[in-house]
Write a structure and sequence with these properties.
This protein is 67% helix and 7% strand. By secondary structure, the chain is an alpha+beta fold. It has a 4-stranded mixed β-sheet, with no helix packed on it. A two-stranded antiparallel sheet has the order 1-2. The relative contact order is 0.08.
């Protein structure tokens, strides 16, 4: 029935990603609200399993390094053809290829170097990808795991055990790095993600290899694939049911979060301090305190004062200029049919006149207030609206205002 099909769709998304295997909108919404949407995106987990499979086959069958590498490229390349050219899977495939090449040759490798090289290679091959949100999120999440997750996992392992330490540390590292961009782009934050990932990551870690194995077996023996998936049904029900239950926790999810560029910079700075504070250094102490000690030992008082003055003088100059030259500003937002005008007074008061349309298109409802007006206000640094005016009762000026009022 419907539950069985829903479970099958979720398993397909876990194995092949949303691009190749979309799920029902309520299911995707539930996963997003509890910070588990990353499980439905094909990325490093699946590619890592394929790389491990190739290395195991190479060791078991005594394959030559070039044969192992060719087999790995074939499996990873075929998987990418099935999943589609998502930025996350391309990133994972390139990194997986580099690590596989180093492993079969018996050479060491550095994860950050591999991450930077793959990012540069992706941009060189397809420059427009620089503005792709999924591209940025994929690299930020991986960088968070490498820079924060791995050191924290090693430090927490003696007290928490390897499994719990890895789950908590990897989840914390990834979410610390992607949270600013997610809040700024979608105006929402799933606090409950730190809790939901603890049981969800191990479950997904069992379901993904099980699904991959079933997909391979199903090519030659469909009945065998069905048998393999029998034990996974209970895990799927637990994952989907748990995501649905946690998505109804109001405290775990914030939406309509207004994030200005200044607020974004402050959030990034705050999370950087948190990351440095929680990540241990080589001696087991706080990396932040170690860095501050190194700065204090290297820098003289005169240098610190000079740097502070170099930062403060331009900032104070701009603030003084604005105070002495007050002006009225009018921002005209491009909303297509209808208008959306932002008036900013000399003392900072704000007035929004109309909010653009909300119209039905062949692809569904398009809310200009949500897609254009609110992001533009955030980009302009608007933290609050003092006045909102609708010029007349028509869908073109009124349609986008509900989305604006829900955010401000």
């Amino acid at each position: 029935g419907g539950a069985r099909q829903q479970a099958a769709d979720v398993l397909n998304a876990l194995v092949f990603g949303l691009y190749a295997a979309p799920v029902a909108e309520p299911v995707e919404e539930a996963f997003r609200r509890v910070g588990l949407a990353h499980l439905l995106v094909a990325s490093g987990t699946q590619v890592s399993l394929l790389v491990v499979l190739v290395l195991w086959l190479g060791a078991t069958l005594g394959l030559r390094p070039t044969t192992q590498f060719a087999l790995g490229l074939g499996l990873v390349g075929g998987y990418c053809l099935v999943t589609g050219p998502e930025p996350s899977i391309i990133r994972a495939a390139l990194m997986g290829g580099l690590i596989l090449w180093a492993a079969v040759l018996g050479r060491d490798y550095d994860l950050l170097t591999a991450l930077g090289f793959t990012a540069a290679l992706q941009v060189a091959l397809w420059p427009p990808i620089r503005g792709d949100l999924a591209f940025g999120l994929s690299y930020l999440a991986t960088a968070g795991v490498v820079l924060v997750g791995l050191p924290l996992s090693a430090a927490w392992e003696p007290r928490l055990g390897r499994w719990l330490a890895s789950v908590l540390a990897f989840s914390l590292g990834a979410q610390l790095f992607v949270a600013p961009l997610l809040v700024y782009s979608f105006r929402e934050l799933a606090w409950v993600g730190l809790l939901s990932n603890v049981p969800a990551l191990p479950i997904a870690g069992l379901l993904v290899p099980l699904g991959l194995l079933a997909a391979l077996v199903g090519l030659v023996w469909p009945g065998g694939a069905t048998l393999l998936l029998v034990p996974g049904r209970a895990l799927l029900d637990l994952l989907v049911g748990g995501a649905g239950a946690m998505s109804r926790w109001r405290w775990g999810y914030m939406e309509s979060v207004v994030m200005t560029p200044t607020g974004l910079a402050a959030l990034v700075a705050g999370l950087t301090v948190v990351a440095l504070a929680v990540v241990p250094d080589d001696d087991g102490g706080s990396a932040l305190l170690a860095w501050l000690r190194r700065v204090a030992a290297r820098w003289e008082r005169e240098r610190v004062v000079a740097v502070l003055l170099a930062i403060a003088v331009p900032v104070l100059g701009v603030l003084a200029w604005r105070a002495l030259h007050p002006e009225l500003r009018l921002h005209v937002l491009d909303v297509g049919q209808g208008d959306a005008l932002l008036v900013r007074g000399p003392r900072g008061a704000t007035m929004l006149i109309d909010g653009g349309p909300r119209e039905l298109t062949p692809g569904g409802w398009v809310d200009t207030g949500e897609r254009v007006v609110v992001p533009a206000l955030m980009l302009l640094g608007v933290r609050r609206l003092d006045d909102v005016i609708a010029t007349h009762a028509h869908i073109d000026p009124l349609g986008g205002l509900p989305a604006v009022l829900s955010s401000y």
